[in-house]
Amino acid sequence: MATSFMSTSKSQNISEDAPHGNTIFIPTMLANKQTIPEQFFWPKSETVPATGILDAPKIDLQVVLTGDASSVKAQANALRAACETHGFFLVVNHGVDTQILNEALALSEQFFIMPLETKLKAMQKKNSMWGYSGAHSERFSANLPWKECLSFTSDGSIVEHLGSSLGKEFEPMGVVYEKYSGAMKNLTLSIMELLGLSLDTGKDYYRDFFQDCEYITRCNYYPRCPQPELTQGTGPHADPVALTILHQEEDEEGLEVFTGGKWQSVPPVPGALVVNIGDTFMAMTNDIYKSCVHRAVVNRHSNRRSIAFFVCPQRNKVIRAHDSLVGPDSKRLYSDFTWSQLEEFTQECRRYDDQTIKYFAERLLESSSSE
Ligand SMILES: C=C1C[C@]23C[C@H]1CC[C@H]2[C@]1(C)CCC[C@@](C)(C(=O)O)[C@H]1[C@@H]3C(=O)O
Ligand SMILES: O=C(O)CCC(=O)C(=O)O
Ligand SMILES: [Fe+2]
Q1: Measuring CA to CA, which residue among 210, 187, 201 is closest to residue 313?
Q2: pTM above the 0.90 mark?
Q3: pLDDT at 6
């Protein structure tokens, strides 16, 4: 049974926002039921179980930062091989403080198990990525993901945002996510250096381009599910951003990558962070590097938490593949665009899957040829 809320006060404002009337769906409040609402059902073609475990390369950032030229080259070659096939790799010896990683995960669970009226005070507003979402049911009316999210954006202070929406007692929580986001930003720039080396565009090329990057730090919470085979935690998709650094809790599986014609599980590796190439970076390589198609599945026995750090170019910067990556006998696959245009497109389209960037590229081409 869905959790229905008549919008008793303007501040909730749920009925006007939710496309399917005044009903929102909260997986933490549905986890103990026998069955799940049909709005969470996904097509059978998208819930085919994984049939393998991905042997993802572990890129050692300590080697990259301090190693000799030949060991750095070896890391760059391993990175290139992974990015040319499925756009997915792990980073180890990444230098991010374990305490901040654990604290951010623990705090996210404390938030998601809070009373609904507390969570709704931080509910995402139209056209904003900031805030709480219950299964995206404020946006979608079918194929709902079995998850709740809390997203922090880089436009403004996380401390102020949390304090003003939830109260001063939440400001310390904001400090933790500001520290977390700062550490992830630094790690992003190191990864960008290695990506530049792997593509022979030079160590500084992408580092400089993303020096002023924007980001979205998103806490995902996947409660245990009574019918996990019928739904998805996060459905099959590619991230539209440039890069995603994912911290997943160490003792729960769920993340899967589509490669080699099948879904392959990516079990957590203690001390490793997951990194996947997104559509924006794929476009910046003229499709030489692949945007990773992935999903998160749920189970009936345990909850799962993850924190995704989404790296987006500064929103008005022109995204264009480096000339050296567009060979003499290959054409540019994308007209120039900005993250602002692609982000808007992701928020308009009903679903963001592994083909969405191609629709976006076609629309870009149509609009540029009609000018
Ligand atoms: C710009 C973004 C949109 C999403 C969050 C960031 C990068 C990843 C996107 C997303 C996770 C891709 C799958 C579908 C989605 C709706 C989700 O399941 O959350 C996407 C995010 C979003 O639109 O909120
Ligand atoms: O939680 C996960 O394992 C993956 C989440 C994800 O892909 C996303 O939020 O884009
Ligand atoms: Fe993703």
Answers
A1: 210
A2: yes
A3: 27
User: Which of ligand 2's atoms lies nearest the C-alpha of 222?
Assistant: 1
Q: What is the pLDDT of residues 207-241, one digit of tens each?
A: 999 999 999 999 999 999 999 999 999 999 999 99
Q: Tell me the CA–centroid distance for residue 228 and ligand 2, in Å.
A: 16
Catalytic residue among 218, 304, 305, 363: 304
**Residue ranges of the chain with pLDDT lower than 50?**
1-17, 19-20, 22
Q: Residue 224 catalytic?
A: no
Domain layout of the chain by residue ranges? 44-318
> Which sign, positive or negative, has the C-alpha torsion 191, 192, 195, 196?
negative
Cβ proximity of 154 and 181 under 8 Å: yes
Distance between CA atoms of 135 and 153, rounded to whole angstroms? 19
Q: Find out whether the beta carbon of 138 lies less than 6 Å from any atom of ligand 1.
A: no
CATH 2.60.120.330 corresponds to the domain 44-318: yes
239 Cβ inside 6 Å of ligand 1 = yes
